[in-house]
Write a structure and sequence with these properties.
Chain B: Keywords: Signal, Transport. The complex is a heterodimer of chains A (506) and B (274). Chain A has 506 residues and is an all-alpha fold. Chain A has 15 helices and no strands. By secondary structure, chain B is α/β, with parallel strands linked by helices. The chains are: A mainly alpha (506), B alpha/beta (274). Chains A and B meet through helix 6, helix 7 and helix 9 of A and helix 1, helix 4, helix 5 and helix 8 of B.
Chain lengths: 506, 274
């Protein structure tokens, strides 16, 4: 700031001069611009400068300090806003989508491995296709993991990402062994040999107990990171806005005070450069505060209307998907059927909670009317939270309600299929139940697609808010120093001739 | 100088506004994540899991887990308080305890009232019978038999309501009471989580038998006040680290290897705090 070095320290005049104020005052009282000082000031008042020049200089200095403070606070608040938008918009947001997908890629790898082993080496059996899909999933999973590791900002999270990578390596080794052994035994289609099955069981246990839980926990870690960033940065932006208003108003007061002081002492109507500086400050403060309000609002929208739902729906998809896997296991492993049924109920209630003592009751409850008024959904769970999430835009609310109604309709179908399947099993028609899996798998895919459509609406809101946030601070790193220099220059231009006038009058 | 007075008034308004803005930011002063002392609710009557010894101290798998979590939260002073299945939610809601580590299964019903960090372990419900009783081989053999029911515990409803097996309830106040009833012949079976059964069986190894027909997943969560998201996330992190540095595996081996229970030593899938 050019103005600073020229301004004497506010402590002036020095104490020795104060002890003999009368002589100084008397000599100067003859001057046109000088008013005789009152009685010797005491207490705090003694710190105030008592000559015109010193007062003008002090006010200018205070204005300069406030201007620098204003610019520094604005810079800091903007930096926080940009960092918040960057972490939420460019890092963690896309990352949640990536780790959510990771879960599906891992699940599908396991399914394709089972397919490849079941199909065997018979020509045209589709083993190559299964293995190609396995490889494709593995590549995507590795890419998603690499992203997760990059984002990890804490040792615990970093270790989790590394553990997943490590477990994936072990899984692949088991899978490779199983495939090789199966090829060597040269079996056509149908169940592979016991040794191959044992290897596959080891692999699938590793997947179920080690890889998938950690992949899910990584998604949760991302949610934590975003929540902390959001709270820190939004609070910083709002605090920044408050302090911009505080320093801005103080600066305006000082500039106005200087204007009034000059008008009285120097008998001028209006100091034009000073008035321009005051106006410029007013504009800067108003524009800065408005911009920061906008940033806080963009951050809130990105987090609450976009990210929160994206994360919750990613978890909904994951839990639904693993519940569907438990349905299959219920069919294939009668020895643990009771446990798989209980877990299926628990996962279903996590997705959409209705009070029910057992799966029979739950299935029946889900088939009742699930229509809802946003904010007062008659069910809880992930979908209940989504139904109750507030949205500002009316247009989006309509879209969301429609998409969620579609999800609920598809979910009812999935649960109806489940009931049918279990009824068949309980009445001893296991083969029929297995045969019906094709249709119910198609219905599940449809339900999963509806969830993605719903998530897509939130993704759009998220992208818009992030873009608005990015655009909102664009250019401000240029605006701040330029505005600062202009205001400082105007103050200087306004004050200098008056000081000069005072020097001549001496 | 009137202008200055107006400016001063405006300044005062904004300073006040700044004060309120800061007040909103740190609303989580009482989060478990930042506390120096913790009151942790534990079971007092589950051998091997959570039990009060004659000297008045506590020991068991849950107790060690609770201590390790507290250490990782940098808590200096931990007090254990006994809770029962019937009182856990209320004690968390009232703030009588900060955390509950008491073989506390995460269920959708309970999640309506409290939050769960973890689970730190996924147990499985099984059945304990007298060794002489060979008729009970799965939960479906409990039809019309006398089964221990502990109020507030989900174990009996899991058999009776979820699986639809019409067992006859015999009420006991905690699983030690069930054990007494079983050995005295007042009931035919005790059904609850394998970790608890393993501890009970180790007391009367000769006379009792675990059926080994697990029929549920019981994710053991750490109960915490619903609004304390920061605390819940901090506990999750502590659990993750316990698995990463091998503490969890060591504790599982310490308490359950001697009774021959097969345990999982990888971190469970968390519930999520929001």
């Amino acid at each position: 700031m050019t103005a600073v070095p020229q301004v004497p320290p506010a402590g002036r005049p020095d104490p020795s001069a104060r002890r003999r104020p009368t002589s100084v005052a008397r000599r100067r009282s003859s001057g046109r611009l000088w008013r005789a000082p009152g009685p010797t000031p005491t207490g705090v008042a003694r710190l105030l400068p008592r000559t015109v020049a010193a007062r003008v200089r002090t006010l200018t200095a205070v204005a300069a300090v406030l201007l620098v403070a204003l610019l520094a606070i604005a810079w800091w608040a903007i930096a926080n806003a940009r960092e918040g938008v960057r972490v939420i918009g460019q890092d963690a947001g896309p990352q949640v989508v990536a780790t959510g997908d990771l879960y599906f890629q891992l699940t599908d790898m396991d399914a394709q491995l089972a397919n490849a082993l079941l199909i065997g080496g018979a020509a045209g059996g589709g083993r190559d296709q299964a293995l190609a899909r396995y490889d494709e999933n593995r590549q995507k999973a590795s890419a998603a993991l690499l992203k997760a590791a990059k984002l990890a900002d804490e040792r615990t999270e970093d270790n989790t990402a590394r553990d997943v990578l490590d477990a994936l390596g072990r899984y692949e080794r088991l899978a490779g062994q199983a495939l090789l052994l199966d090829q060597q035994s040269d079996h056509a289609s149908g169940p592979p040999s016991q040794r191959v099955i044992d290897l596959y069981r080891q692999a699938t246990d590793l997947m179920k107990l080690d890889l998938l839980p950690k992949a899910y926990n990584l998604t949760l870690d991302n949610g934590t990171l975003v929540r902390h960033t959001y709270e820190d940065k939004r609070s910083a932006v709002l605090t920044g806005r408050t302090w911009i208003l505080v320093t801005g108003v103080a600066l305006l007061a000082v500039l106005t005070g200087l204007q009034v002081f000059l008008a009285r002492r120097f008998r001028r109507l209006l100091n034009v450069p000073l008035a321009a500086a005051t106006l410029g400050t007013l504009l800067l403060v108003v524009a800065g505060a408005a911009m920061l309000s906008g940033q806080a609002s963009h951050l809130r929208k990105a987090k609450q209307e976009g990210f929160d739902s994206m994360l919750a729906l990613s978890r909904t998809r994951t839990i639904s998907n693993s519940a569907a896997a438990d349905e299959t296991r219920f069919l294939l492993d009668p020895g643990r059927a009771d446990a798989y049924e209980q877990v299926y109920l628990s996962k279903s209630q996590t997705v959409l909670y209705l009070k029910a003592g057992n799966l029979d009751e739950y299935n029946a409850a889900v088939q009742k009317d699930l229509s809802f008024v946003p904010g007062r959904a008659p069910f809880l769970g992930f979908l209940g939270t989504e139904a109750n999430r507030p949205t500002e835009s009316d247009e989006r609310r309509t879209q969301l309600v429609d998409a969620l109604n579609k999800v609920l309709k598809d979910y009812q179908k999935v649960q109806a299929n489940d009931r049918q399947m279990r009824n068949l099993v309980h009445s001893g028609k296991r083969a029929e139940a297995v045969a019906a899996r094709g249709t119910s798998a198609a219905d599940f895919t449809e339900y999963d697609r509806s969830l993605q459509v719903l998530a897509g609406i939130h993704q759009k809101a998220f992208d818009e808010a992030v873009k608005d946030g990015d655009d909102g601070t664009g250019g401000w790193y240029t605006v701040l120093p330029v505005a600062g220099a202009v205001i400082a220059l105007l103050v200087l231009v306004g004050v200098r001739p008056r000081l000069a006038e005072y020097r001549w009058s001496k | 100088m009137n202008g200055r007075r107006v400016a001063a008034a405006l300044l005062a308004v904004f300073v006040l506004a700044a004060g309120t803005a800061c007040g909103i930011a740190d609303a989580d002063e009482t989060s478990v994540a930042t506390k120096d002392t913790l009151v942790i609710g534990v079971n007092a009557d589950q051998p091997g899991v959570g039990e009060r010894t004659e000297s008045g101290s506590y020991e068991g798998f849950d107790i060690d887990i609770a201590r390790e979590i507290a250490e990782r939260l940098r808590v200096t002073d931990v007090t254990f308080t006994p809770v029962t299945s019937a009182t856990r939610e209320e004690m968390i809601q009232n703030g009588d305890v900060d955390l509950v580590v008491a073989s506390y299964s995460v269920t959708p019903e309970r999640k309506v009232k409290v939050s769960f960090a973890g689970p730190y372990y996924v147990a499985h419900q099984d059945i304990l019978v007298r060794r002489s009783d060979t008729a009970i081989r799965s939960i479906h053999d409990l039809q019309d038999r006398r089964l221990c029911r502990v109020p507030g515990s989900v174990s009996f409803p899991r058999v009776h309501d979820e699986q639809g097996v019409a067992a006859r309830p015999v009420v006991a106040n905690g699983y030690s009471g069930c054990l007494t009833g079983l050995t005295a012949g007042a009931m035919d079976a005790v059904s609850t989580d394998d970790l608890i059964l393993a501890g009970l069986a180790s007391r009367h190894g000769r006379d009792l038998r675990i059926v080994n027909a697990p029929f549920t997943d019981e994710p053991y969560g750490v109960g915490i006040r619903k609004s304390d998201v920061n605390g819940c996330e901090a506990v999750n992190k502590a659990i993750t680290r316990m698995y990463q540095d091998g503490t969890a595996a060591r504790l599982l081996a310490k308490w359950f290897a001697p009774v021959g229970l097969k345990v999982t030593t990888t971190v469970p899938q968390f519930e999520g705090c929001v």
